[in-house]
UniProtKB/TrEMBL annotation:
<keyword id="KW-0862">Zinc</keyword>
<keyword id="KW-0378">Hydrolase</keyword>
<feature type="binding site">
    <location>
        <position position="79"/>
    </location>
    <ligand>
        <name>Zn(2+)</name>
    </ligand>
</feature>
<keyword id="KW-0547">Nucleotide-binding</keyword>
<comment type="pathway">
    <text>Cofactor biosynthesis; riboflavin biosynthesis; 5-amino-6-(D-ribitylamino)uracil from GTP: step 1/4.</text>
</comment>
<feature type="binding site">
    <location>
        <position position="169"/>
    </location>
    <ligand>
        <name>GTP</name>
    </ligand>
</feature>
<dbReference type="InterPro" id="IPR036144">
    <property type="entry name" value="RibA-like_sf"/>
</dbReference>
<keyword id="KW-0342">GTP-binding</keyword>
<feature type="domain" description="GTP cyclohydrolase II">
    <location>
        <begin position="19"/>
        <end position="185"/>
    </location>
</feature>
<feature type="binding site">
    <location>
        <position position="164"/>
    </location>
    <ligand>
        <name>GTP</name>
    </ligand>
</feature>
<comment type="similarity">
    <text>Belongs to the GTP cyclohydrolase II family.</text>
</comment>
<feature type="binding site">
    <location>
        <position position="81"/>
    </location>
    <ligand>
        <name>Zn(2+)</name>
    </ligand>
</feature>
<protein>
    <recommendedName>
        <fullName>GTP cyclohydrolase-2</fullName>
        <ecNumber>3.5.4.25</ecNumber>
    </recommendedName>
</protein>
<dbReference type="InterPro" id="IPR032677">
    <property type="entry name" value="GTP_cyclohydro_II"/>
</dbReference>
<feature type="binding site">
    <location>
        <position position="68"/>
    </location>
    <ligand>
        <name>Zn(2+)</name>
    </ligand>
</feature>
<feature type="binding site">
    <location>
        <position position="84"/>
    </location>
    <ligand>
        <name>GTP</name>
    </ligand>
</feature>
<feature type="binding site">
    <location>
        <begin position="63"/>
        <end position="67"/>
    </location>
    <ligand>
        <name>GTP</name>
    </ligand>
</feature>
Amino acid sequence: MTEKIGVLGKKSPQRTGVERVVNAPLPTVYGKFQAVGYLDHDRGDEQVALVYGEIGTDDVLTRLHSECLTGDAFGSQHCECGDQLASALRAVVAEGSGVVVYLRGHEGRGIGLLGKLRAMALQAEGLDTVEANLALGLPVDARDYGVAAEMLHDLGVNSVRLMSNNPRKREALQRHGIQVAETVPLLIPPCENNITYLRTKRERLDHHLPHLDAVVSSS
């Protein structure tokens, strides 16, 4: 915890890191979860982990899901995010236990909603998702997974079976002290509207998407 100087010259404490604020039951169409709410004092973001069943400490089936309003809420076919979130929630219910960490502040790989929409407009003109971010002077991927690791630590999780196609998530968790026992692919069948986006994720962002091979070979 750091300290700051108050208006009268006195030092007052300023919280840092992630604080658990609330734990509430959350019945969903997938099953009944516990929504564990956190406040990230460093960034000011409100975060949530959806916990299903008795998760234990080791090899917990886990998804780190980056916030995507267009995909998660609106069903956008520009990406596969909404389908990935639904698949992850179904998977932890089928497993009998698990965690889905929903990471706010990750919209558009960390460039924000308006930045993402501007990038999507450029993609409609022919740029790929990497080129569009760079054309706007924005980072290709500005996400940080430290807060996710802190939330998992708070939940008592030491190691995970990580539902992800992105090797950077695995590397980030391990860097922050969460062991990744296994990477579980989360492969969503592509559609006409997102195949170019998915190919770019595989070719330029190193995502593991072997199911695209058949689509590429037939195109």
